[in-house]
Every structure is written in C-alpha cells, then in structure tokens.
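Q: Here's a chain of 288 amino acids. Please give me its 3D structure as tokens.
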Amino acid sequence: MNLAVVGANGMLGQDLNRAAQVRGITMAGFDLPEIDLCRPDSLAVLPAVDAVINCAAYTRVDDAETDREPAWRINAEGAGNLARWCAAHAVPLIHISTDYVYNGRKGSPYVETDDTDPLSYYGQSKLGGEVEVQRAGGKTCIVRTQSLYGLGGRNFVKAILNQILKGRTELTVVSDQVSCPTYTLHLAEGLLNLIQAQATGVVHLAAAGGCSWHEFACAIVEEVGAAVDVKPMHASSLNYPAPRPAYSVLDTSRYQSLTHATMPTWRQGLQAYLEEEPMVVELKQSNG
C-alpha cells in the first residue's frame, strides 16, 4: 500500500510514519511549504497513492476566536480543496476532525449521528471542513478524535512533566472537562486499520474510556512516581477565549465494527507514551 499524508510534520503525521513502517506501508509525507491546502495548485505534487490522510489543520483553539480567516481557510476551505483533488483522482481520503464539533451537553459518549453544535470558532471551522469534504464527493472518511498527545510536539503530558522537572510540588488542573486523551501512535494505527477496512462516512476514533484533565494529570504523576499534589479547579476560572465542551467522550463502536479492532484505554496509551518520552528518562536521572 502507498499512502500520502498531508501535515506530516505534526505529532500525528510523525506517528503515522512510524506505524506505516511497522506494517510495510510506503508513506510519502507532505507539509508546508511544499503543500499548502489554501493553494489548490500546490496539490499537484501529490503522487499516485492508494489513500490520502489529511492531518493538516489550524489548531490554536483560543487564537481562532479572533484569527478567524486563517482558521476557516485552512480547516474548512483547505480541507475542501484536498477533498476535491482526491475525488477528481479517485483516491480515498481520511480527514481528521475533532470532538469540538459537539457542545458537550449530552452527558454520555457521543456517537457519529449525534447533532453537532460547536461552541468555539475552531469547532465551527472544523465542522465547516467536514461539510466541504462531504460535498466534494469521492470516497471519504471523516475521523473525529480528541485530546491528542505524542512524541513529536507540545502536549499536555509534556507540560505536566516539565512542571515536575522544575520541582513543582503542587499543580492545579481542570476537573470539569471530560474527554479521552489519545496517544497519536495508537490513533495512527487505528487510521491504518480504517484504510484497510475501506471505511467511509464519519467514524469516531479515540482511546477507550474517559477522564477529566485533573484525572489525567494525577495518572501522569502516579506513573512517573512524582511527589506532586494535583488539585482540581473549574475551567471557568481560566477565562479561556474559546469555550470547550464539558463532556466530549467519543463512542468508538462504529470503528470496532468496521475494523474488528479495539483501541487501548487512555491509561494504556499514557503508559505506552511514557515508555518512549525522553523527559521521563531525564526525570529519573534528576531523582538519582
């Protein structure tokens, strides 16, 4: 199988490369400036492949509230440009979307057919991308995922580890936002499963289970054996420009039925990530 990944330099793109190598899949990775989704002519460099995965996105959730034009151009119009290229060349497309298309008021895991109602402009732009991808026709699979972390970029786990390395003995973390933190290597493996299953439509793909950011931070501290007291706090006290859904856990039953595979739990994902994270080695060395 030959695969092209747009947005290959990000956390997910890098882990797609790792997962593809393990399976003997040839992956061609593309990113700025070689491919700019806002410039349809730049897509001419894409080779003949069996599938394309779009990981490229504007992901600065808070900045998108005021930086609206770039967010929409990349997440909505750019996604549409790539989807139309794929449709014209009869190439299946996997497009990465987000749990932020939901308002978080359901109170139980979201299924693909639940109504969308994004609270933030970032969420609106990603939903706009879903609409553009569907309008393009062709063979497309929109994959909603959430709360990603991986070796190839900044993320919540690294932020907590950095505070531990700085000698912090007390942290305060949001306890009233529940999602499911997902390791990008596990997500990458799931995406390859969807390609092999020739999946189409909307599919939810994230780690199994769900937790608050406070619970996740407590698990990080516990896994690395740090003496840190993690206290809960309300999200409202942070005054973020962009509102977040309070509960956005994704139900992955459709993924399981399509691929006959299950995703690891969020705790298993965390453990797998920490086994490879260089900051953990540094932490152990600092503790003697």
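Q: Can you summarize the key feature?
A: The radius of gyration is 19 Å.
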